[in-house]
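Consider the tokenized backbone below.
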């Protein structure tokens, strides 16, 4: 009997679009005549929670538990219950008539977020601005309910994660094991009700969970616990980004009370071998890159040579069967670039596998998803794009590469133009000199509206130490080329890199300020440096001027490595000020404020001179209107079915 695989994306990932892991593996396994229905349990659970009947249960549960946080919400519970279905429907479809209704005085309760809404936002004129304003107000309304749930009913609840705090840096399985022995929460009960419906409907003999982030682990374990208790004949497999990075040194057998297989790296080969093993076609010794339990010991099965499925030979992801009518578009941050992570529908696709640069010292370059670079052809890539559009009816694409190669972006753009295929797309890049004005212009003509890339620390000394292969002047020229072609730029920023001084932090902040003021950067996000076990810094911390202070490994997860930086600044003091200043600049405000005013402690004055020439540029026009919608050549993708 041939296996039937059910693929689950556990809560919570993105709520505006489908996470791609199940679509990739569905496309692959169906080439091998293996049935693989997939379920985005993340959006299914969200839409089950945020409806009037369940919200009434939430308020009842809070009363039973005698939790009364956010009284503005509980005092207006009947209005929240009355409006919730309208709001979710609007965030799914964004129609103008409902938008006008939402914005009427008294339609929404004024809870702790809506009572403090920013009324000075310059919304676009016409229907677009009305819809965006209603979407923003609706998002705040939903967030108020989310705050209430977390504070009163389920402390693990969040919109894009669940119980992340206990899965992050979980060296030992002890806390997870203890919490899994507790009674499920109201939210978890509903999650398992939905899971049971999927199992009864699809009748699988193998359930696979993708676990991309720490915020998916506990919900996956809770689901697996349920399956083991009520459907013991079903095998369970885990895979995904969390497993690939955190569980490579796994030795604690207790997780195998909940799961039968844990695979690493690309899932195609390991999953096909697991299916063949369950079907009796291969022995357990022929499994690849997979942990199993034998004689109460964790054993890594990895028959070599591995069966390799090259990126260029893989089929298009198959998104068919996912509930595209249920995804919601949030608008919490009105910055037009920043909102793209939570707004609109995007088909996710990779141009290339891995990173063509793979030298950054803070990055997990030793792992397959970074270090194993493989390419394809533009013709094959656009063929996949056409198939995905046919499956989903969506013409928006987010290319989720570690770093999209410039040569491939040129070839892709030319092929899209050649076929007259109108799509809207954005991707992740390195700010390298190849992105000259001509290439950026070509990408814009082919439908590119935005790029994201790692500026990290705007310090040439530290960029060299990181082996980024760029300097500040080059990054500024590249971002200028994109902005001149109306392609928005988002930068990933880092603070706390080994030996980074207070002076370098403030100087980096000044560079960022100037780039926003010159409008060569439209959005950014500060990350605190984390030393990981699979990066060059984590492998040789003393070579970078820091020392590991990690406790003894507890047998479960190993990725983040606590460290001490005796030569750098007190990095934790700078996080709040960096984020506050960035939030203001992303909204076109606060450029004149002294850098030190963003911090509650004294800071050194910047040594970076004002003026565009300092960054290797000529002066540019002032910043564009910060709250304009995506005013690019192509419209945002909507839910138009083909």
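A designed sequence for it:
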């Amino acid at each position: 009997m041939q296996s039937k695989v059910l693929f689950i994306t556990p809560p919570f990932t993105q709520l505006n679009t489908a996470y791609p892991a199940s679509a990739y593996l569905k496309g692959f396994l169906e080439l091998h005549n293996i049935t693989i229905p997939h379920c985005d349990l993340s959006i299914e659970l969200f839409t089950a929670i945020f409806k009037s009947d369940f919200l009434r249960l939430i308020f009842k549960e809070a009363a039973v538990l005698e939790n009364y946080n956010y009284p503005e919400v509980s005092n207006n519970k009947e209005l929240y219950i009355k409006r919730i279905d309208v709001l979710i429907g609007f965030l799914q479809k964004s129609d103008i008539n409902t938008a006008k209704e939402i914005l009427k005085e008294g339609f929404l309760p004024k809870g702790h977020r809506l009572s403090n809404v920013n009324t000075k936002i310059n919304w676009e004129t016409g229907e677009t601005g009305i819809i965006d304003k209603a979407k923003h107000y609706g998002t705040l309304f939903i967030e108020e309910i989310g705050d209430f749930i977390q504070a009163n009913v389920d402390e693990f609840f969040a919109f894009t994660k669940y119980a992340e705090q206990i899965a992050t840096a979980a060296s030992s399985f002890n806390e997870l094991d203890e919490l899994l022995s507790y009674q499920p929460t109201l939210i978890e009960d509903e999650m398992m009700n939905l899971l049971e419906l999927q199992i009864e409907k699809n009748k699988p003999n193998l359930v696979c969970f993708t676990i991309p982030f720490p915020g998916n682990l506990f919900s996956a374990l809770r689901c697996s616990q349920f399956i083991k208790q009520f459907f013991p004949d079903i095998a369970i497999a885990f895979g995904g980004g969390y497993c690939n990075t955190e569980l490579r040194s796994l030795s604690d057998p207790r997780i195998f009370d909940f799961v039968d297989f844990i695979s690493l790296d690309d899932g195609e080969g390991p999953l096909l071998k697991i299916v063949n093993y369950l079907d009796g076609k291969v022995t357990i010794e022929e499994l690849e890159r997979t942990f199993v339990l034998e004689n109460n010991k964790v054993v890594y099965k990895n028959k070599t040579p591995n069966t390799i499925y090259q990126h260029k030979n893989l089929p298009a992801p198959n998104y068919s069967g996912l509930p595209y009518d249920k995804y919601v578009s949030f608008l919490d941050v009105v910055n037009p670039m920043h909102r793209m992570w939570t707004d609109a529908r995007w088909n996710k696709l990779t141009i290339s596998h891995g990173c063509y640069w793979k030298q950054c010292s803070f990055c997990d370059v030793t792992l397959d998803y970074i270090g194993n670079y493989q390419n394809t052809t533009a013709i094959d890539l656009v063929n996949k794009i056409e198939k995905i559009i046919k499956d989903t009816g969506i013409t928006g694409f987010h290319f989720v590469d570690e770093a999209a190669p410039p040569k491939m972006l040129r070839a892709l753009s030319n092929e899209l133009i050649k076929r007259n295929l109108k799509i809207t797309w954005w991707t992740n890049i390195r700010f390298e000199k190849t992105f000259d004005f001509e290439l950026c212009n070509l990408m814009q003509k082919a439908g590119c509206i935005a790029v994201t890339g790692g500026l990290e620390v705007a310090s040439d000394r530290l960029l060299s130490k990181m082996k980024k292969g760029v300097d500040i002047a080059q990054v500024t020229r590249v971002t200028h080329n994109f902005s001149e072609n109306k392609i928005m730029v988002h930068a990933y920023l880092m603070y706390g890199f080994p030996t980074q001084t207070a002076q370098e932090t403030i100087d980096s902040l000044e560079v960022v300020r100037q780039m926003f003021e010159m409008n060569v950067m439209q959005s950014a996000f500060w990350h605190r440096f984390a030393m990981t076990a699979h990066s060059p810094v984590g492998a040789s911390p003393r070579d970078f001027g820091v020392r590991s202070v990690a406790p003894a490994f507890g047998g479960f997860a190993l990725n983040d490595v606590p460290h001490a930086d005796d030569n750098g600044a007190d990095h934790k003091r700078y996080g709040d000020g960096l984020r506050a200043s960035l939030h203001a600049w992303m909204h076109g405000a606060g450029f004149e404020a002294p850098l030190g005013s963003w911090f509650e402690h004294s800071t050194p004055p910047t040594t970076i001179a004002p003026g565009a020439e300092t960054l290797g540029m000529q002066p540019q026009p002032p910043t564009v209107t910060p709250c304009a919608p995506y005013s690019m050549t192509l419209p945002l993708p909507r839910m138009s079915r083909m």
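Residues 619-642 have pLDDT under 50 and may be disordered.
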